[in-house]
């Protein structure tokens, strides 16, 4: 018999943005499924109606889409499945694995106060657990799980190892509230079962939940999924990730100009390893990723490592793909779209622009010479390079360029000859030439720029700079 296909899921609560920790959880689930020809499903846990808005849900979908994580089928709404959750609670009631509890909040508070006074466990033990249903009053009630009181629940976790929790530490949790709404614990188990989820890969803050959820699986006679509870992400200081550490949502990283492929590489490596490999492709990540490579300790954000990986990905990215992502970055950050001439010029310049950059804003700065339109406005530093002597030399250089063969070798020889005639090195003349062509003191090689923008534009910019 062949093994059942792998089915993973990502189940965020819509809170307005896709948290970087949630994004890594989604990525791990996506990699695990895609590397095994399985399914990666998406469920929106939108039962908190006060916080669950269409805008918040859309923010999560947008974050996943930008990160390049495609899911199978339509996203499932947990709230829309409430009738199914109630149906399971009623089935458990009928089988005797759940019971009606008529205790009020005052009753529960009194029980806990008495337990505290007597030094007993405050874990609530309902007096309704074994009451004959025939004697039940016609009154508001909740439905509780009839959890085992003795023995232990053992979680065999692929990351945390064997975790044993005594059943005397687990109460008869509420499955259905008195208003008939299902609790989170019940909904998660029913949804995972109905969606055919085989592997639950999630944050280790859910580890205790797994013990409770296993009792629902047992009560229903359902197959328990493979558990993998991954450590959370901490800030560089080793403390729980918070706003003081910087960006928390993936859209912030998108808006800062990190490429999605670099983010995928970095987040995959954050808390997971494959030997000493740091830089890898999506195909390699899918082929290599396994639960055994996930560490037990919290991972720490490292922006230098993120930037380093992004720089490596920029350098090897296909020009057409890089141009598409750059245009998407401009749109996402509300910047003006590229005009046709800018797009054509950038496409021509990309081979010499994409090395050494780590973000899209750095690409914008480096590509200023090809994106800007005449007259080129020099910045403060570039203006200093365009003094009277420099302008005079550029004026002398212009007719030589008009007659030069437009190849790198010929251009270097032409500029070098003019520089030598004035007792200058080629580097000394490159400064004002760069300022005239790019309006910046830092740019690609002046000869690369001349080859990209062409003879006519080069001469026109030198004429503008001469004043």
TrEMBL record:
Query: What InterPro entries does UniProt report for this protein, alphabetically?
Result: aa-tRNA-synth_I_cd-bd (IPR045462), aa-tRNA-synth_I_codon-bd_sub2 (IPR020751), aa-tRNA-synth_I_CS (IPR001412), aa_tRNA-synth_I_cd-bd_sf (IPR008925), Glu-tRNA-ligase_bac/mito (IPR004527), Glu/Gln-tRNA-synth (IPR000924), Glu/Gln-tRNA-synth_Ib_cat-dom (IPR020058), GluQ/Sye (IPR049940)
Give the matching SUPFAM superfamilies: An anticodon-binding domain of class I aminoacyl-tRNA synthetases, Nucleotidylyl transferase
Catalyses which reaction(s):
tRNA(Glu) + L-glutamate + ATP = L-glutamyl-tRNA(Glu) + AMP + diphosphate
Give the matching PROSITE patterns.
AA_TRNA_LIGASE_I (PS00178)
Q: Which domain of life is it from?
A: Bacteria
Per the annotation, the residue ranges of the short sequence motif 'HIGH' region are 12-22
Entry keyword annotation includes Ligase: yes
Keywords in alphabetical order, please.
Aminoacyl-tRNA synthetase, ATP-binding, Cytoplasm, Ligase, Nucleotide-binding, Protein biosynthesis
**Pfam families assigned to the protein according to its UniProt record, in alphabetical order:** Anticodon_2 (PF19269), tRNA-synt_1c (PF00749)
Q: Does the keyword Ligase apply?
A: yes
Span of domain Glutamyl/glutaminyl-tRNA synthetase class Ib catalytic:
6-307
Task: Write out the residues that bind ATP.
Answer: 243
PANTHER family, per database record = GLUTAMATE--TRNA LIGASE, GLUTAMATE--TRNA LIGASE, MITOCHONDRIAL-RELATED
The family assignment reads: Belongs to the class-I aminoacyl-tRNA synthetase family. Glutamate--tRNA ligase type 1 subfamily.
Q: What does this protein do?
A: Catalyzes the attachment of glutamate to tRNA(Glu) in a two-step reaction: glutamate is first activated by ATP to form Glu-AMP and then transferred to the acceptor end of tRNA(Glu).
What is the protein name given in its UniProt record?
Answer: Glutamate--tRNA ligase
Q: Which organism is it from?
A: Rhodovulum bhavnagarense
In the UniProt record, the gene name given for this protein reads gltX
């Amino acid at each position: 018999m062949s093994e059942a296909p792998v089915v993973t899921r990502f189940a965020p609560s819509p809170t307005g943005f896709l948290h970087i920790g949630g994004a890594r959880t989604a990525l791990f689930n996506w990699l695990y499924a895609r590397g095994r020809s399985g399914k990666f499903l998406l469920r929106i846990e939108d039962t908190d109606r006060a916080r669950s808005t269409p805008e918040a849900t859309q923010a999560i979908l947008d974050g996943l889409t930008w990160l390049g994580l495609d899911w199978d089928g339509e996203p499932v709404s947990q709230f829309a499945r409430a009738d199914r959750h109630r149906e399971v609670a009623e089935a458990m009631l009928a089988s005797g694995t759940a019971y009606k509890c008529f205790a009020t909040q005052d009753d529960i508070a009194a029980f806990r106060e008495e337990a505290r006074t007597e030094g007993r466990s405050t874990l609530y033990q309902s007096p309704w657990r074994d009451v004959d249903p025939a004697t039940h009053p016609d009154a508001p009630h909740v439905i509780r799980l009839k959890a085992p009181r003795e023995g232990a629940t053992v979680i065999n976790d692929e990351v945390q190892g064997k975790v044993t929790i005594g059943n005397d530490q687990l109460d008869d949790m509420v499955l259905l509230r008195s208003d008939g709404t299902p609790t989170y614990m019940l909904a998660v188990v029913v949804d995972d079962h109905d969606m055919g989820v085989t592997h639950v890969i999630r944050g280790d803050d859910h580890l205790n939940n797994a013990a409770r959820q296993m009792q629902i699986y047992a009560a229903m006679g359902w197959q328990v999924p493979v558990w993998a509870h991954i450590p959370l992400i901490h800030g560089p200081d080793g403390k729980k990730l918070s706003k003081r550490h910087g960006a928390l949502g993936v859209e912030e990283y998108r808006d800062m100009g990190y490429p999605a492929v670099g983010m995928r590489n970095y987040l995959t490596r954050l808390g997971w390893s494959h030997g000493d490999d740091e830089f890898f492709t999506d195909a390699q990540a899918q082929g290599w990723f396994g639960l055994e490579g996930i560490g037990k300790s919290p991972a720490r954000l490292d922006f230098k490592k993120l930037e380093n990986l992004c720089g490596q990905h920029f350098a090897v990215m296909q020009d057409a793909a890089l141009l598409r992502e750059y245009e998407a970055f401009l749109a996402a950050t509300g910047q003006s779209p590229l005009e046709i001439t800018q797009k054509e010029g950038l496409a021509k310049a990309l081979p010499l622009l994409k090395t050494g950059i780590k973000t899209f804003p750095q690409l914008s700065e480096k590509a200023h010479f090809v994106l800007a339109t005449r007259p080129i406005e020099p910045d403060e530093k570039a203006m200093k390079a365009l003094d009277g002597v420099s302008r005079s030399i550029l004026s002398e250089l212009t007719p030589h360029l008009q007659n030069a063969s437009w190849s790198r070798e010929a251009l270097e020889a032409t500029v070098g000859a003019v520089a030598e005639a004035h007792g200058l090195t080629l580097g000394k003349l490159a400064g004002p030439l760069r300022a005239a062509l790019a309006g910046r003191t830092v740019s690609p090689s002046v000869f690369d720029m001349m080859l990209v923008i062409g003879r006519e534009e080069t001469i026109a910019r030198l004429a503008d700079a001469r004043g």
